[in-house]
Amino acid sequence: MNKLLNTLGLAMRAGKIISGEDLVIREIRSKKAKIVILATDTARNTEKKISDKCQFYQVPMIRFGTRQELGNAIGKTERVVIAVTDFGFAKMIQQLVQ
Asked: Which stretch is the leader sequence (predicted)?
């Protein structure tokens, strides 16, 4: 778990993280998002909206951590959804989840 949060921090410092529901949906639609991370304590309607977009545009999505943990990992306040826009970081995150 710590490795995944550290990887998110590295990706943020590299400028490869987009956070916030509207911005993430835009990245999914433009096919720039390589993986989407959704907090486990997300509201049902937000979860459905993000999940449906990810399925339609074939973007992998994982549920991980609380909104507080995700926010802390990228040096911001609470974040419900994060998109990683770099293939290398996305691949690293998928390997850590498995």
From this structure: none
Which among 73, 75, 83, 92 has a CA at the least distance from the CA of 35? Answer: 83
User: Tokens for 59?
Assistant: 């973007």
Which tens digit of pLDDT belongs to each residue from 49-90?
999 999 999 999 999 989 999 999 999 999 999 999 999 999
How many domains, the chain? 1
Please give the model's pTM, rounded to 2 decimal places: 0.93
**Which domain does 63 fall in, by range?**
2-97
Domain containing residue 47: CATH number: 3.30.1330.30
The residues with which 83 forms a beta bridge, in sequence order, are 18, 36
